[in-house]
């Protein structure tokens, strides 16, 4: 159980780092960051973690801000 909690905290910490990178002005010009943001959008678990560290609805996920969560 302890390792599971550590794993979850590591995932949240990594997603906070990603959120900071995606907040950099003009990040949409980076194809690799754009691809990474798309990867987050396409994975429900990653999207959920991203939203929890942002405290919101997934806004700010890079170039294609209008993420459909349905």
| Class from helix and strand fractions | mainly alpha
Instruction: Give the helix level as a range of percent.
Output: 55-70%
Number of domains: 1
Shape from CA axes? Answer: elongated
Largest sheet: none
Structure description:
By secondary structure, this protein is mostly helical. Helix 2 (31-42) packs across helix 3 (44-54). The chain contains 3 helices and no strands. It has one domain (2-54). It has helices spanning 2-22, 31-42, 44-54.
Give me the secondary-structure topology.
Elements: H1 2-22, H2 31-42, H3 44-54
Descriptive keywords:
disordered C terminus, ARM-like, mainly alpha, 3 helices, 70 residues
Entry summary:
With 70 residues, the chain is mainly α. It is built from three helices and no strands.
